[in-house]
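Regression check, inosinic acid case 196:
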Amino acid sequence: MTAPLLPMESEAEQPADLHRDVEAVLVSQQQIAEKVAELAAKIDADYAGREIVLVGVLKGAVMVMADLARALTIPVSMEFMAVSSYGSATSSSGVVRILKDLDRDIADCHVLVVEDIIDSGLTLSWLLRNLRARHPASVEVVAMLRKPEAAQVQVPVAYMGFDIPSVFVVGYGLDYAQRYRGLPYVGTLRPEVYST
Ligand code: IMP
Ligand code: MG
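Current build output:
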C-alpha cells in the first residue's frame, strides 16, 4: 500500500559497510513498522479530537518522529530540542544543557515527547521537568526502546515500544560515533567496531 518509490534501488543502495558491522538484529524493520502502527493507533484513540505537539530530542528521535508523524491521523506539529549531558561521554549524568530549544510556546498544548531510547532515564526525567514548567495542558512520553536501567528513575512512559536488554545498540536513529543512525533496524555492533 505504502510501497517505497524505488524498493529495489533503495535496498541495493543500503550502506553495505554499515550492515557488515552489525552483529545481531534486536528489532527488525518489520517489527518497528508494526510497533509504530500500533502506538499510533493508541495515540490516535487517546487524543481523538485534539491536536498534539510532538517534541523530539535530536538527533536520535528523528526516525521515530518521522514514522510516528506519518502514522498518526490526528493533527500534529513537530518540534525539536537538542540537549547535551554534562559529565562523561558514555553515561548520562542527568545534568542537561539545552543546545536548541523549542521554536514555540507550549502553554496549554498537549505535548507528546518522542524518544528513541530510555537508558538511565535521567535525560528524559530532566526534560519532563523542564517542559512541565512551561505549563502545557498535558505531557506524555512515547519511546521506541527502553533498557532495564530505566527502572531506577521514575519516568512515566505512556506509549512504550520494545524493552531491550542492557546492551549498546545502533540504528533507527541511534548512533555510535555519529554513524549507523540510518540503519532501518536496531542492532548490536561487532566488538571489533569499537576497537578500530
Ligand atoms: P539516558 O536515558 O539519560 O541515559 O540517555 C538516553 C540517551 O542516551 C538516548 O536518548 C540516546 O541518545 C543515548 N543512548 C542510550 N543508550 C544508547 C544505545 O544503546 N545506543 C545509542 N545511544 C544510546
Ligand atoms: Mg536521545
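Comparison notes: Residues 29 and 109 are 32 Å apart (CA to CA). The first helix runs from residue 7 to 12. No diff flagged against the previous build.
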